[in-house]
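Journal club prep, notes for RB
We'll compare a predicted complex against what the paper describes. Inputs for the sodium ion case:
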Amino acid sequence: AFTPRVFSGIKPSGGLTLGNYLGAIKRWVDMQGPDFETIYCVVDLHAITVWQDPADLKRSTHEVAAALLASGIDPEKSVLFNQSQVPGHAELGWLFNCVARVGWMNRMTQFKDKAGKNTEKVSLGLYAYPSLMAADILLYHATHVPVGEDQKQHVELTRDIAAKFNHDYGVEFFPVTTPVIEGPAMRVMNLRDGSKKMSKSGESDMERINMLDDADTIAKKFKKARTDPEGLPSDVAGLKDRPEARNLVDIYAGLADTTAEAVLGDFGGAGWGTFKPALAELAVEKLAPISDEMKRLLDAPDEIDALLAKGAEKAEAIAEPILERTFEIMGF
Ligand code: ADP
Ligand code: NA
């Protein structure tokens, strides 16, 4: 039996969005407590799969750590650290490159989305990244991984790698990890194009809500969010084939810790002119205290670094025996 242990990570690759908050951070905070050991990581080795200006990488690393702390990740309750400070991630990542099959990687839809037609010019790291992600998770024998919907396929690959390793070496060494994808806002969409997910790296700032946006900006972005001409339906069946409407209702539900049904119970029949300002107000109410605290923390990057260094020591203590045993099993 494996200790119930949660691992999850966020890339420091630009400003954090409401998608990161609702799909990941908020739920990481909720999972702290007696049921799980919780390990949360700023995954900087993943960020460099696409070009990162060195100064921006450092600044984004601090921003992600600050966002986690400001949102309620408690370094006394959780292990919070930066991936590159624990060398075992890269080491196990290499071992898993030799377990994962090229055919499996070829099926990763996120790679296809990110690389587009330009597969000759993207980094080898972008292609191999799900295998490093498997290493991140399995280096701690994590049993549960809370992620947004976009990461489901990568957690399934992690399960495949664990199962193949266990099978090939005749051991029951790595757990078969469960993705935890629960809640109303596990796939927050772009505010201008409801067919794309909201992302740090989208083209226009108007398509996403950033965790550091001020109240006026948040109100303006929701006001300009694309919607259809109909107002809000009285139940979720009325959101069918209306991705933009569905998205705004899901965001409201995620922020309010409720369900889309309950939101429509309150707002069914209203127009967007009523709903959008209410949504903006709720988002500001939830995000402003977090962004204020983030800004305070970002003024003291040395304190963030000190916290991350302590977290890395704790992470290392869990990872080291697991990595050592992995090498042994493989015959090193
Ligand atoms: P991004 O895709 O913004 O670069 P990451 O790849 O670092 O973010 O993902 C960090 C976490 O945030 C993952 O658990 C991912 O599933 C979640 N996430 C990212 N974007 C969204 C979104 N639009 N909706 C829900 N969750 C998201
Ligand atoms: Na992502």
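Talking point for the session: The two ends are 26 Å apart (CA to CA).
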